[in-house]
Amino acid sequence: MRRHLLEVRRALPPDVVAVTGEALARRTLELDELAAPAGARPGGRGNHGGPGGPPTVAAYVSIGGEPSTRALLDRLRAAGVRVLLPVLLPDNDLDWALYEGAERLVRAGRGLLEPDGARLGPEAVTQADVVLLPGLAVDHGGLRLGRGGGSYDRVLARLERAGARASLVVLLYDAEVLAEVPAEPHDRHVHAAVTPSAVHRFTAPGGRTEG
Length: 211
Hints:
Elements: H1 2-10, H2 14-28, H3 32-35, E1 56-58, H4 70-78, E2 82-88, E3 94-98, E4 105-107, E5 113-115, E6 130-133, E7 137-139, E8 144-145, H5 151-161, E9 167-171, E10 177-178, E11 192-195, E12 198-204, E13 207-210
Parallel strand pairs: 1-2, 1-6, 6-9, 7-10, 9-11
Antiparallel strand pairs: 2-3, 4-5, 7-8, 11-12, 12-13
């Protein structure tokens, strides 16, 4: 399934990726977790800004045929959101740094773009109110299918160990919300999936609502 989904993405024209990225940004900014005060966000910790302060969002810079996050990153930053971006470590774990604009992104290994600012440490993600996750698909129960590299499995395990209550949101194309995806023992469910046309909420394994 991963191979097929990746092939479909690779076939997408760049202009389609860009247009869907704009729609994805608009839809993501509709999330209640980004509109409510920090102390009142559904599932949010409000660790950084405190009650009423700006949220902290752990995001990522899209590459290749992934749903584009470029517009979303700039809109989040313009809205006063504290945006954390990953920095890939040699062991495939993720460090984090602040997003300070596209001009502060630098080329890294594996075709990635990473912020050039101070590293905040792998535990910085536990401060996030919302964690935006890359993925290839999600099923109707909220089970996320990743690329198989393991970096975000470590992030999700770290959040769980810390008792973090961040909202976990995967960003996808509309056709990537599926009836079923392959499951492995370490896989975890997300709270929502955002696509260019909808926000899919997952209340429990096997159930979902759309907004």
